[in-house]
């Protein structure tokens, strides 16, 4: 059986940074990824990574911390936020030394630009391809460090025995074999779950696999009701149009040609936090002020000029031309909100440890709660770097003091093979694509930007129905190698579990906070709801408990922008 000291599931930015740190601490490290590493979703991050470098204007970590806590609608744990923002400047310099080519000012210093919800200019960027630049530079270092990479391995199960994580079960897509792999430490860096919504900025890999596996293994999930909808997804697909486009001076316009953001955020306008702008756009559309009465508005960059667009936003220009037939130099881009980010995820402490011995997590699949109820743009890449490094350090230290677990893999492999065969030979006739579409439509129609009790109850009933019907899924592909019908079924199972958790928690939280907006409880209620939700899968049911928010510096206030 394959074994390593530290095994990292996922090859995005958090996984890469964890691998580098664990290898630097002397551990034998491997990455397991369901695609080639530089195809991880981190490459889709466009606008930048936040740090109080003060290259463009005065800044400090205290301002960065306050902006993050306020943006989170005061649900973020402030001790974790302080760690995030204090270490940010050092992390940027480290990334530069690892080979990242940041965009520069004329004096050669790293350039920075404004971003939504930030009171100071602190987004470090590489044109509009920041995630791509970071992912590639870290992958070079991972290869240099001699980290083993098992790519095109689809992890299907976490092995936990007697409260200790001992390994994983995975489908090697190239060989068409089910494998077990054991390790002293496992780190989940599996990303988010945007595909639970049909219109999303997330790529096809983001199905909440790690979150679902952790849940089924008994690990609590935190704050699953908080889903971020990015204001500017390219119409109609939802492909991301970076907030950097607004940071460079882009305007949001309704059908009347009005910069309507001023009605919702008079001071920050287009640079208000994402939850506020997503609701603003959705409101404009619902009240008939979408373009030509339709379900999108315009993002106008034409006044920025050709030179600036080509220099700072070349990818956005290419996306707009290829996908919408619009050159932003000449005309506005059609946009509407798109499912983008998961503030909630696997419950971890500030050292990235889960309640299960030997299991750690970092990045979007986890919830150390630096984002609370709403993430500020450019803080996600920062979280991946800061807490990816911490996860690698903690997991390597744990592995150093642990022996390789004793694990009999035969029964786990046989169970997974039986599951695959049952899917291939089933007679239920339920189609993966049909169930997935029903789930996505349910989430978009009833668990979206505006929520209410009636819709949430209806959605919960529908998801439970879909969950039951999943037992009758049948796949027609009988091949063993690259069986995408099988992996598609596994991804659908994860999406169902994620949708279930989001919806049940959204129904339970009777207030509006950050990205979670209830039209029937349209005010924030700190007295009853200034707390994190914790969701546990027990005896086939989801049970919800709550935990206090850590407040160290900033008492909750009304959010005004």
From TrEMBL:
Coiled coil: 425-476
A GO molecular-function descriptor: flavin adenine dinucleotide binding
Protein name: succinate dehydrogenase
Top-rank taxon, per record: Archaea
Residue span, FAD-dependent oxidoreductase 2 FAD-binding domain: 5-381
InterPro entries, per database record: FAD-dep_OxRdtase_2_FAD-bd, FAD/NAD-bd_sf, Fum_R/Succ_DH_flav-like_C_sf, Fum_Rdtase/Succ_DH_flav-like_C, SdhA/FrdA/AprA, Succ_DH/fumarate_Rdtase_cat_sf, Succ_Dhase_FrdA_Gneg
One BP annotation, GO: anaerobic respiration
Pfam families: FAD_binding_2, Succ_DH_flav_C
Catalytic site positions: 274 (proton acceptor)
PANTHER family: SUCCINATE DEHYDROGENASE 2 FLAVOPROTEIN SUBUNIT, SUCCINATE DEHYDROGENASE [UBIQUINONE] FLAVOPROTEIN SUBUNIT, MITOCHONDRIAL
Domain Fumarate reductase/succinate dehydrogenase flavoprotein-like C-terminal: from-to ranges: 437-561
Topological category with respect to the lipid bilayer: Peripheral membrane protein
Organism: candidate division MSBL1 archaeon SCGC-AAA382A13
Keywords: Coiled coil, Electron transport, FAD, Flavoprotein, Membrane, Oxidoreductase, Transport
Location relative to the cell: Membrane
One cellular component term from this protein's GO annotations in UniProt: plasma membrane
Cofactor names: FAD
Keyword Translocase belongs to the record: no
Family recorded in the similarity comment: Belongs to the FAD-dependent oxidoreductase 2 family. FRD/SDH subfamily.
EC number: 1.3.5.1
């Amino acid at each position: 059986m394959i074994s390593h000291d530290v095994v990292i599931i996922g090859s995005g930015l958090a996984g890469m940074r964890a691998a580098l740190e664990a290898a630097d601490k002397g551990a034998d490290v491997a990455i397991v990824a369901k695609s080639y590493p530089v195809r991880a979703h981190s490459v889709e991050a466009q606008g930048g990574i936040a740090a109080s470098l003060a290259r463009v204007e005065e800044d400090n970590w205290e301002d960065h911390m306050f902006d993050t806590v306020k943006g989170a609608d005061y649900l973020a744990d402030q001790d974790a936020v302080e760690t995030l923002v204090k270490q940010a400047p050092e992390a940027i310099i480290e990334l530069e030394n690892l080979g990242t080519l940041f965009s520069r000012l004329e004096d050669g210093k790293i350039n920075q630009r404004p971003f939504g919800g930030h009171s100071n200019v602190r987004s470090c960027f590489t044109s509009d391809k920041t995630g791509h630049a970071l992912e590639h530079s870290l992958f070079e270092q991972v290869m240099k460090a001699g980290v083993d990479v098992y790519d095109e391995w689809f992890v299907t199960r976490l092995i936990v025995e007697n409260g200790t994580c001992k390994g994983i079960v995975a489908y090697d897509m190239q060989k068409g074999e089910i494998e077990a792999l054991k390790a002293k430490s496992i780190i989940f860096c599996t990303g988010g779950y945007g595909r639970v919504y049909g219109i999303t900025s997330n790529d096809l890999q983001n199905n909440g696999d790690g979150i679902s596996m952790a849940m089924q293994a008994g690990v609590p999930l935190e704050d699953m009701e908080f889903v971020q909808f990015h204001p500017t997804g390219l119409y109609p697909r939802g492909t991301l149009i970076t907030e950097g486009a607004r940071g460079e001076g882009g305007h949001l316009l309704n059908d009347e040609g009005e910069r309507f953001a001023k009605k919702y955020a008079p001071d920050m306008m287009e640079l208000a936090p994402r939850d506020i702008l997503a609701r603003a756009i959705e409101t404009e559309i619902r009240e008939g002020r979408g373009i030509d009465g339709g379900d999108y508005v315009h993002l106008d960059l034409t006044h920025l000029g050709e030179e600036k667009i080509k220099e700072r936003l070349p990818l956005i220009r290419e996306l707009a031309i290829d996908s919408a037939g619009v050159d932003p130099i000449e005309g506005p881009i059609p946009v509407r909100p798109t499912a983008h980010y998961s503030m909630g995820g696997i419950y971890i402490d500030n050292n990235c440890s889960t309640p299960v011995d030997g299991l750690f997590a970092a990045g979007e699949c986890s919830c150390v709660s630096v984002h609370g109820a709403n993430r500020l743009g450019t803080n996600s890449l920062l979280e991946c770097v800061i807490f990816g490094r911490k996860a690698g350090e903690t997991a390597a230290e744990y592995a150093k003091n642990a022996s390789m677990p004793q694990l009999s893999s035969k029964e786990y492999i046989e169970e997974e093979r039986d599951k695959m065969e049952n899917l291939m030979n089933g007679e239920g006739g339920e189609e993966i694509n049909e169930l997935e579409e029903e789930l996505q439509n349910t989430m978009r129609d009833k668990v979206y930007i505006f929520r209410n009790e009636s819709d949430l109850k209806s959605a919960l009933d529908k998801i439970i129905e879909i969950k039951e019907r999943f037992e009758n899924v049948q796949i027609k592909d009988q091949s063993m190698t690259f069986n995408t019908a099988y992996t598609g079924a596994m991804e659908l199972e994860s999406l169902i579990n994620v949708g279930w958790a989001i919806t049940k928690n959204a129904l339970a939280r009777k207030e509006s906070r950050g990205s979670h907006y209830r039209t029937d409880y349209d005010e924030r209620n700190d007295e009853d709801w200034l707390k994190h939700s914790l969701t546990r899968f027990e005896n086939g049911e989801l049970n919800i408990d709550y935990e206090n928010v850590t407040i160290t510096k900033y008492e909750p206030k009304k959010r005004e922008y």
